[in-house]
Amino acid sequence: MTNNLPQVDCQSLREVISKSSLVEDCDVVSSGALRIVTPFNFPNGSQIDLFLERSNDLFSQYVLSDYGLTANYLLDMHIKAWSTSKRRQLIQDICEILEVDSDAGVFRIALGRDIATLSSAIVRLAQACIRVSDLSFTQRLQSSATFQENVEEFIAGANLQYEIEPVLIGALNNPVKVDFRVKGSKVLSLVQTLSAPNPTNAHPKSVEVFTRWFDLQSHNGLRHQFVTVFDTINSFKEYDLERLSLVSTVVGFPEEREELQEILAA
Questions:
Q1: Among 107, 101, 162, which residue's Cα sits nearest to residue 130?
Q2: pLDDT tens digits, residue range 63-100?
Q3: Where does 158-230 have alpha helices with state H?
Q4: Which domain holds residue 109?
Q5: Strand ranges inside 97-248, DSSP E
Q6: Structurally, how many domains does the chain consist of?
């Protein structure tokens, strides 16, 4: 059987690609910026629009941005893109790799005083929009997140200021790390999560958390309150939870989420 498939070389490939456009449509919005309709799409299929305008700063240069549409897309998916440290770090990594700036939820690239690099900028910025908008898939994969991440998501959603994995000095001058330090209206809460998907680890995990609180007893009642948040999906023995209640406030999550919010906001 004869193979009639045409031969493709680099020159013919360039000719085909040159007919493809990064700008499917263009118009002027109320701010005076040019709206560029790109061939790229958000996860829901809607096209990604980018905007080209002159900056209002001292240097007066062209700037390509998404006008915050990526952040708005995620908000429509009930996701706050910058709400947790993990997401902030992920977005920072994406921006650094693609050489995109992020400011107040807007992704942008400064082009300078001409638009010679516009094609490259459109591809890079659209890539950033796509990769950040893929955070919407984390909503569907929430069950695969760690328990600590789920608790952080809850704290961030309650609009409470918090610090991740603070280190304090224990009774023997040893460094002791807990999961979160949360600032309430009057009290700082040290929060330690407790999760053991494997039932055989439930008791050792609870003892580990108890030891951590015991080492930090000198901090209890001064500026901090101790809060243990355990995963109610896991099976913890009653006596392990009672032991923890001697050195901390014990709250089940997600069942007692309202109580947890009241405790942390106090």
A1: 107
A2: 999 999 999 998 887 777 787 787 888 999 999 999 99
A3: 202-215
A4: 17-140
A5: 101-103, 106-112, 161-164, 167-169, 175-177, 180-183, 188-194, 224-231
A6: 2
